[in-house]
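Dear colleague,

Following up on yesterday's call, I've attached the two folding results inline so they're easy to grep. Please treat them as preliminary; we haven't cross-checked anything against experimental data yet. The first protein's sequence and structure tokens come first.
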Amino acid sequence: MRKGQAAIELLMILAFAFLLLTPFIWQAVQTSQVETNLIQARKVVNDLASAAEYVYAQGTGSVARVRAKIPPGVIWNESYIGKPSWANQSIEPREIQLRVEAGAGYNDVWKSVNPPLLGEWPEKQGLYVFTVRLNEDGYVIITPYADISLSPHEHFENIKAGDNVTFPFWITNYMDITVYDVNITTAGEIASWISLSNSSVDIAADERVALNATITTSNTTESGLHYGQIIVTWGNCPMLRLSARSEVQILLC
């Protein structure tokens, strides 16, 4: 009887001790999560800043891609690429910032860079691949896009009427899973002039697939600048249909 009573008393003491420790355990878990979020935020900001400096040094038209995980707890309306919307016009847009929740407050993770910036955050946590490129006006453009890319983003050909030309393009899967039924189609004014080496492919995780497109013109085609698009759509789930586009231009002479 005494042993049973002693066991019950021990359980009561342990339960009481656990209740006393629960707030401290919860606080430790919360602190650990905040630190993890800040580490991820610092990596995103630093990687994008490094990519911005790189393309700026390489010159107009240079492009870099940054694969980054946006952590939870970001305060999106107070995060920015370039400068905040409320900043004075005289302030140059040369900062990358994420504001991250930290308990009852927040922490600003930011980095200043040499080139002027234009860009946007995706406004949702998760894994993204960012395009970082230098435009003709000297601005580094930073934009998030889906985890499959089509390159080049623009392609130009100068050919004679009645001739044809074949050029390569690439589809890259940055995700950690194989993507099935990636469909490639054409659109625009010269859609009927473009034939593709493949109309559908499967792309393994972290794989890049090279394809070809051939533009064929007739002898009666009028000279001038003509436009079209190569469009890539995919989605393992029928409810998810995403796309990437590449502008195709030809000058007939």
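Below is the second protein, in the same order (sequence, then structure):
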Amino acid sequence: MIDDLPLNSADENLKQHLRGETAPMRWIELAPFFARGQLIVVSPLLDLLDVAVAMSRDRRESFERWMASGEVKLVDDQLASLWNDQPPTLLAVVIAPWVLVQHLPDQAH
């Protein structure tokens, strides 16, 4: 849920659409988005698609709260270095120009 409220039907439709656009991607495929500052990592405590819907709907309050808590953040050099050394496969969804990623359940760090 976004903002602790049920999704409305338009948000549910968008979430369903984004589910079909979500796919596992290897770090090597995501690295160019990191280089452009367009890669955002989402904590496994959050639903990746709820975050994508919030971003698509420009729900700033949600993002500010998630960013302040560290549950959503830009991929930094330290994390990118770790991923270069131990390349994960991440679940990814595009909300142009951003790419949101989340560790697959069996690869959560």
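For the second protein, one point worth flagging: Residues 1-5 have pLDDT under 50 and may be disordered.

Best wishes,
A.L.
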